[in-house]
Design a protein that fits this description.
By secondary structure, the protein is mainly α. The chain is 60% helix and 0% strand. α1 crosses α2 and α7 crosses α8.
């Protein structure tokens, strides 16, 4: 198996496609997703992605530590935007309503980016070689939701109820994504809104004990 460490190749060679030997995370992600979709993730090498972007293999690793990270782009930065959106939610807005609005906004993309976004998510949720990485990446997203729920509930993020909210939120988001794959005429934000409305109707802002429920 070839090493994933940057090769000491002495720097960037001139691009055979006439591009300067530099790029952006965004451009490299787009090239990678296009190649993965067309040729298959397992059959696309780092060298081929780098060549498609007009850079060297060494430069590729300045942007992404592994091939698997390409489909995620700047996911950590996007998760921080979700955190900021939840932080801005007014206290008088119910917890699950605030979460629904923030997640819908998190999934809003310009119309011209729709097909790329769909292809990227299909890889993330459907490519066997990426499933393990997806679990790790989504754990950070889920934790941001759990931390928000914990603040609203006056609990620790590791307590059961905030963790349940985080798990349910991730499940609702993934269900909306999968529905979007099956219905290409649907809008992702509409599906996400519908999925989170179902959770909103179960808002546990005032947890009840088993005794209070008459059990």
């Amino acid at each position: 198996m070839p090493s994933m460490e940057p090769a000491e190749d002495g720097g960037d060679a001139p691009s055979r496609h006439g591009r300067p030997p530099s790029t952006t995370h965004r451009e490299l992600e787009r090239v990678g997703v296009e190649l993965f979709t067309r040729r298959g993730y397992a059959h696309t090498s780092v060298e081929e992605i780098a060549d498609g972007a007009g850079i060297s293999r060494r430069t590729f690793f300045r942007y992404f530590p592994t091939k698997a990270d390409v489909v995620w782009g700047d996911f950590e930065g996007e998760v921080e935007k979700l955190r900021a959106g939840l932080d801005r939610a007014p206290e008088d807005v119910p917890m699950m309503t605030a979460l629904r609005r923030a997640v819908v906004e998190f999934n809003r993309v310009p119309p011209e980016e729709t097909e790329h976004h769909r292809a990227r998510l299909k890889l993330i949720l459907g490519e066997p070689d990426l499933i393990a990485r997806s679990m790790l990446k989504f754990a950070g997203w889920r934790q941001v939701v759990a931390e928000f729920a914990a603040r609203r509930l006056g609990q620790s993020p590791t307590d059961l109820l905030p963790q349940v909210v985080g798990e349910c939120a991730l499940g609702a988001a993934v269900a909306a994504y999968r529905r979007w794959f099956a219905d290409e005429g649907a809008r992702l934000t509409d599906l996400m809104d519908e999925a989170f409305m179902a959770l909103e109707r179960m808002d546990p802002a005032i947890p009840r004990t088993a005794a209070e429920e008459g059990r």
